[in-house]
Design a protein that fits this description.
Chain lengths: 380, 510
Amino acid sequence: MSVPYSKLPGWAEYGLIPLINLVVAFVVAGLVVLLVGESPLEAAILLVKGAFGSGEGIGFTLYYATNFIFSGLAVAVAFHCGLFNIGGEGQAYIGGLGVAIVALSFDSYLPWWVIFPLAIIGSALTGALWALIPAWLQAKRGSHIVITTIMFNFIAASLMVYLLVDVFKPAGQMAPETRVFAEGAQLPRLDWLLEMFGFTIRYAPFNISFLLALVAGVLVWLLIWRTKLGYEIRTMGHSPSAARYAGINQTRTIIITMMISGGLAGMMALNPIMGAQFRMQLDFVTGAGFVGIAVALMGRSHPVGIIPAAILFGMLYQGGAEIAFEMPNISRDMIVIIQGLVILFAGALEHLFRPTVINIFSRLSRSPGPDAATSAEGGR
Amino acid sequence: MADSAITLTGINKSFGAVRANRDIHLDVAKGTIHGIIGENGAGKSTLMSILYGFYQADSGEINIDGKPTTIHTPNDAIAAGIGMVHQHFMLVENFSVLENIILGAEGAALLAGGVAKARAELERLEREYGLEVDPDAIIEELPVGLQQRVEILKALFRGAEILILDEPTGVLTPAEADHLFRILQQLKEQGKTIILITHKLREIMAVTDDVSVMRQGQMVATRKTSETTVEELAELMVGRRVLLRVEKDPPNPGEFKLSVKGLTVRDSRGVVMVDDVSLDVRAGEIVGIAGVAGNGQSELIEAIAGISAAESGQIMLEGKPINLTDGADAAELRGRGLAHVPEDRHHMGLVLPFEENENAILGYQDDPKYLNGPFLNIDAIRADADARIKEFDIRPADSRLKTANFSGGNQQKIVLGREMGRDPSVLIVGQPTRGVDVGAIEFIHKRIIEMRDAGKAVLLVSVELDEIRSLSDRILVMFAGKIVGERDPEASEGELGLLMAGIDDQEAAA
């Protein structure tokens, strides 16, 4: 017996429900703010102002969003294949290795527009390789991808500590990071883009990897909905037995999908390393890989949803920093709580309000026509 | 006229824009067996779910034993004396019979007291109704017929006076089904009321006192079973005259298209599912494989279709061997002219969240016709899907619609269109009409026979013995992984039934 769920119109499915989730998340977050004795309204104003109130704020918001677009797309691609890639964090971290090696090798000889494509390849390749092992274990041995990718996050973290301290750190330097890159490995900022809208970017590290992220979004859309590989990935994701029936090579599909996912996560490293700090630091990913999970869930694994969701989380990061700065009672950890609430309501509790909304819609649209009861129990 | 056990008045239930039940009136007399028939999607399951508290009606009244009753949850239904035997058993497989029966009625936090009481009560029920089951047997070790008996006992243990059985014979052999009907008669004599939901007209005629027919969410007629005929009921169900018999010319078999020799298949636990099976299918004939579900038919056709690997044996497709050990060459076999309508269209034959046109190429996604380099040729795919929709009369005629929104019969037509439409030389068909309404069954049967007449070799697997008998030119019976006999389609149902139950070939013939 199937549970007959009537479909919602597109705008409600993709607009109204996420909006309701978001509003509830902010209401609960507001209560938390109230609890520590600050005004929620003021906090909200600070949040929005901090994120969008100045050219620099917008620059920072979009800089963070760039990270989240990459990690969100990475999660989404794997998700279409029914794989829950929790390893974006580690894949991005290892992706940094590809960026750093390219940058450190060529930064004094080549211009940025030659190094950038090389670094894209380097980051995608290293990220993909880091995803390859869990993918292989899943495809061949049935080791659950969630467990293995989480484990690989820890391995990546330890490996990078070793490499940064013992291999990449220049002699005589205290901080575990590479040397600062020469100009050839520094990506141009998108100051002109914001100036078109009358803003000045000031110190925000908003750079061309944002455009790369948008291109990646288009490519992911093409891959998933317009290629044969995407068709096979979606078939696998919806129904592994149908994929078997259709003669789709499951091992191959799992491995390729995870490598694409890992490659996208790896490309995230371009943004902070070549676009902001011009060196590879310890822990440069700072949780962006995990935020990608929430972004993909909220964006319904579709690039058109992922990009606004990434910007929303960019706003929370940037505006949240502003709140922490302006309101002494609200520490950085409070901001994490607020972000957690958004993830909780937009991601984990995504379906909390759906039945109610469906009920309201069906009550509004009930037409006493002579339509048959065909789809009510059609599937069992 | 006896008192009413159940009276439903003006029941309405909608899911969104779909009106699953419209103004339903139903009166079930106490101590009778009342059949409810209707096509898939006619609203039978919805109505019973309302009665058992899974759903709530939008409007209408339920009277149990003449008293107005509100049923919000299955617990309310149980309290009102209603018990339900589901089509898919709701049993914990690794629990004993007794443990399953007290499930949900354990009595106290500590089990011991409840178990002792339940054992005594169970013994009384078994004596009273002749429903013998070993209370300490583990469910998964019991045959299906006995598992169903446990379901019935479970309902009686909860004090059910009214029993609802949802498609109870789908998993039973003809003999087991007969046994079930005897049990139902006995329960009726003890004063229980029974509602039997089915789409098999023969069962209705055999066992019920009254029968109600549902069509498109409405109750279209109620008849005394003794005063109606199969033809009338079929017409009421579909809303037009139906041809119940399949008409076909004698077969004209040609050369061997598919030969299987000594095929053995083990499942993932190492249990032999197909045991040294050999069979041949020739061009222009339909070979039917009869058997109770779970006797290796599924594994057999999956191995032939290249979906799962076999352990040993040989399969020749048009005289050329098939690679048996590597399971992933289903796509290659399609290229060689082997089409396969899988038994389970929901999990195998279709990807339900896909658009119809995407499912129309499932398995044929490598066909260069549908590709532009690595990209899908969306225009070609949709044009092809639209042509199939027309050819196979798939409704609604919208190739952009999500497949889940098609009815069972139309979903099956999508699969058939895909597999028949490419001029295959061998067609494997599993359960072609499972969950398909009567009108579509006629269409599907006709198509299968057309394939045969066009010189295709057809291998048919079905648990519906009637279907096997009316379509096949030769019948093979499978039991416990082996082919235990071959019969003409004229063989009697009793003879085939014995074979299906594993009674030896010679004995059955004798």
